Amino acid sequence: MPDELEAVLRLVAEGRITPEEAAPIIDALSRLPGPPAASERGRAPDADGRLRRHLRIRVTERGRQVVNLRIPIGFVDTALRFVPGLGGEQSTRIRQAVRAGAVGPILDVEDPDGQGGVFISVE
Q1: 54 in Cβ contact with 98 (< 8 Å)
Q2: How many CB atoms lie within 10 A of CB 39?
């Protein structure tokens, strides 16, 4: 399943599909059966049997939102490779927060001109 997610994220990064078109595909991939990711082991499912933990990635450029994705938490490592301008320190911080079970905003970085940025949170 990580290969499929990577392919979808690559299509978004290349501009071949929009984040809105990618969202239902990513959601469907998260529903496929398979072994739980390390970050999901030990978590209790909701009433419908699904884990409700996701990474939200929002990217803005020139004052408009260009990416708004909700990624299943098990795909954090794959997804972070596709976030433009995300450095090693920020990636490490996000991975550590996810492993620690954090919920809420993890990273909120704005361009100096205030016209763009990256917001990442766990939902």
Answers
A1: no
A2: 22
Query: Is residue 2 exposed (0-12), middle (13-18) or buried (19+ Cβ within 10 Å)?
Result: middle
Structure token pair of residue 101: 């079970």
Phi-psi region of 15 (alpha: psi -120 to 50; beta: other; left: phi over 0): left
Averaged pLDDT of the chain: 77
Distance, in Å, from the CA atom of 92 to the CA atom of 118, rounded to the nearest integer, reads 15
Q: Whole-angstrom distance between the N-terminal and C-terminal Cα of the chain?
A: 21
pLDDT of residue 74: 82
How is residue 10 written in tokens? Answer: 């690559």
Query: What is the distance between the alpha carbons of residues 16 and 9, in angstroms, rounded to a whole number?
Result: 10
Q: Per residue in 13-29, pLDDT tens?
A: 888 888 888 888 877 77
107 vs 96: CA distance, rounded Å: 12
